[in-house]
Amino acid sequence: MLITVVILQLFHFPVFVEKNNLPAICILILLYGYACTSMVHVLERVFNEASLANMILFCGNAFVGLAGIAILLILDIISESEATDNARWVLHKVLMLSPHFTLGDGLLEIAKNTIQSQVLIQFGMDTYRDPLTQNVVGYHYIALFLVGTALFLLNFAIESDYFDAITVRLRSKPRGPAPREAAGDARAEERRVRDALQPLRLRTIGNINAGFVDSEDLGSLKKHSSVSRGTARDVCSTLRLRREYGARVALHDLSLGIPAGQCTALLGENGAGKSTTFSLLTGEIHPTSGQIYLLGQKVNTRDLSQGLISYCPQSDAIDPFLTVRETLVLYCMLRGIDDREHVIRRTLESFELVKYADVRAGALSGGNKRKLCTAIAFMGRTPLILLDEPTSGMDPVSRRCVSAAVRGATRGGRAALLSTHALADARRLAARVALLRAGRLHALAGLDDCLRRFGGGYVVACVVRRGGSRAAWRGVLARAPHAALRVLHQAALHFLLPLRATVNGKEIETKLSDVFRLLAELQMSCDIEDYTVNQSSLDQIFLSFNEKTSIIDAIDESTVTPRLLRRNSDELDSVTSL
Ligand SMILES: Nc1ncnc2c1ncn2[C@@H]1O[C@H](COP(=O)(O)OP(=O)(O)OP(=O)(O)O)[C@@H](O)[C@H]1O
Asked: Which residues constitute the signal peptide according to the record (predicted)?
């Protein structure tokens, strides 16, 4: 609006700055903004996609507005009978449902009124009607206000899930059977989640607002969490949760349970759908289809924000103008924590933030901001803690604080969902690892299982006499065709021997003794000077999992490029043995 006023003044559109026209136009634009905002929010709720909603609003409305004005002008010109006049009147009122049309038509009315008066004043007639006090754009104001209010109420009703059934049907598209990739873990987890969906009697964990201090009696909670890991009840679960952004599917029918007393790690490359999962679980965005269950009850997006979930988002959600202590006080107030002093002191100590207590959050280093954000998620005793890459940018000491907090929370029976690229964190904390790829759950298993199934095996690093590495690799392939090349340099050969592999349709298992036998044979026939054998780590699994094709398939001696070698060498640098 301000911009419009400045433009009108700058370019001095005489018609619009005449007398009371400017304030009248400002009111018109204000009401237009109100109607458009309400409309775009409704479209966003219905189509579940902000950019599509904006496109429909602006393109659709602009088309209706321009076409409407053009049709009315034509009807004006050809107007001969009363019937045409009536049709024009009705059409005019119907078109007023479009804010763009109403704005354009209102501006035309104001311009017409002013130009007419400027012409007639030459003949001594003052026909100027004040648009603020006389009915020049009165109908336009009313139309914009009514459309805006109706859409605002509709938006409110959709937000309150009064139209849940209808909007879910509008959003969902017919889909074929579950993809082949969904077999195995994903299907098994879906079955487990369905079976486990009997309401938990536990509604809250003690007093969820009491903070995480030790004084709280966690007896009842521990009873729930003391069940063995495999059978722990899910605090939260998703059933075929799906989120689409236009044609792009960010999350494909995710069925995942987050059991009490455990940390579940969500791993995946960039864009795999981790943050989307968090946004869905916190009610920040609506699912395209699928359900979320919290403590055994089916919940909607509104229920998700009722205080049962703590969330550390990927980007720091803190007010830069508040000090660390003030930030914690604010969150204590929001959570309704009574014993504030005690909880804040414990939080500052646990996350080693005592010396920054009176520093403005905006002046903290990146890692300390992250710590503050994570600390907030551990205040209160919510049954579910969601941590989206909490340790990114943290030093090892700070990572330890976060690990301790997660362990403390899960020991107390709370459930944690942790998304991380720091695989060491996942290895330290997670009982189960969910591997996401391109929005699909590809694997869900304990660490040992992942080791066994995804690239788990033995990493062999050989020092070869200069120039002998290719011959050594040929020797490895002749004896172990299932070996996967990692590094091939003049004097270095690194390869992975998977624990299990299928060679010529035969399932083979590699034992440590087989590895040493192979290396002994290689030492006899090739120029291997020295070697080390490590069991592959979670990092290795992650890399193997993300590889589109096995390197062994893609590589032949002549196609080994320096880039590929460098890449594999870098990958190996991150491998730490278990
Ligand atoms: N608002 C949006 N509009 C369109 N596409 C989106 C939007 N938000 C996410 N996406 C898409 O959804 C997919 C999953 O994104 P998401 O942010 O969940 O990935 P991620 O696993 O959290 O990645 P990272 O590790 O980089 O944080 C990506 O392909 C992304 O481009």
From this structure: none
